[in-house]
Amino acid sequence: MTETGTAEAITTGAGQGPVAVPRDRTRYLTASGVALWGAQIGQVAVPLTAVTVLHVGAGGTSLLKAALTLPFVILGLPVGAWLDRVRHRPVMIGADVVRAAALITVPVAAWSGHLTMAHLLAVVVVQGVATVFFDLGTQSLVKDLAPGALLARTNARLATITQAAVIAGPPLAGWAAGLLSAPTVLLVMAAGYLWSAGWLSTLTTHEHPSGDATRPRFLQQIGEGVAFVARQTVLRTVVIAGSMVNIGIAGVTTLLPVLALTELGWSEGTLGMFLGAGGVGGLIGAATAVKLADKLGAGRAVLLVGIAVAPLAVAIPLLGRPVPGPVAAVGWALVMLKVGFDSVLMMTFRQQVTPAGLMARVNGTMRVLFTGAVTLGSATAGALATTAGIRWALGASAACLACVWIPIALSPVRRMTTLGGGG
Fold first, then answer.
1. Which whole number is the average pLDDT over 322-337?
2. More confident residue, 395 or 378
3. Which residues touch 225 (CB under 8 Å, ≥6 apart)?
4. How far is 319 from 259, CA to CA, in rounded Å?
5. Does the structure show a pLDDT above 90 at 255?
6. Is the separation of the CB atoms in 390 and 263 below 8 Å?
């Protein structure tokens, strides 16, 4: 497998010196990191605003969560096709500015006593739509900023930032909301998005053009992205494995609070520590992925880590009976280590095999499928818990996580040896 384009083409174009890529990589990671932390904090701060200011219940908070994820399902494919026609950096800057502007209206309305659920829901929808543009743009832009072997290392840093945000973002949001109020936290988030836009505006690396001399019709472009994912064996494997992970995690995170708080009698703090152990595991997995892949070979590392971790998923449905909480927490941390590990290597695999002119469409297609897998995992887990019991439902979710290595073993991914220009 080869990268589309070369390091030389990126670092020496249009008067740029050889330091353009390292400098721009740092600025890109800074901007993306701020946006990632903002997204994690917002998942707590927005519902807290609804509860503390508008006094809504579980139905209202569930509606807000759905409004944030639904744009990915609806817009992922057309936005991906459109992004393959334009430069990504201006779109990302615009998305940051839109997110900031929308968030600013919430504390203003709350402090003036005019905030309504419809207003908050509209802001969340705008956030979701803008995030579709930003996320698909950033997944495509990174290949221009990190050519060759730098691609996996950049993905590893981004995954590490993501896992750190997953671990620390929600507790930080809760602490800040208690200290400053939830609407004020949203104002800080808006400032963060503007800061992200500022860093992105300083990038100088030229983006690769799509290379299409005659562009097909819009719907045909969407179809090309879907078809490429369907026929490319590495991408099919990434879709299957990633969907299994999302189905499993969605099921576990949906059911675990019910089991822990009702059947086992845990406190919210104990449950938070258990889930936090998974975040730490994911962080370690992301941080060690490239080094282990260099030693074992990328595909072999993904396969072997998956096989080693698979049995530990059994601890999840057996939590408390008979597996003690601390032992199950270690098992959960190692399962999430595998998830963090794969997040780096699988992203790199899909970037390696995708031409620059298809990158946004492939990212959009996958984002739709992965978001759909989350919805499927949550809905299936809830239905199975109702009919067969919560532990059987947790067992089904854990089985998805335990079997992620199987599609890897049956595909060419297991033979991929390097991260970067070679395959």
1. 90
2. 395
3. 77, 80, 81, 84, 358, 361, 362, 364, 365
4. 9
5. no
6. yes
- Residue pair 386/223 in contact (Cβ under 8 Å)? The answer is no
Q: Could you tell me which of 151, 157, 156, 209 has the C-alpha nearest to residue 3?
A: 151
Omega before 22 cis (within 30°)? Answer: no
What pTM does this model have?
0.69
CA 348 – CA 156 distance, rounded (Å): 9
Largest CA distance in the chain: 65
pLDDT-wise least confident of 201-205, 273-277, 400-404: 273-277
Contact 132, 79 (CB under 8 A): yes
CA 21 to chain centre: 24
Cα distances (angstroms) measured from residue 148 to each of 36, 192, 327, 352 = 24, 31, 40, 9
Mean pLDDT of the region 310-320: 88
DSSP characters for 153-167?
A: HHHHHHHHHHHHHHH
- pLDDT(4) > 50: no
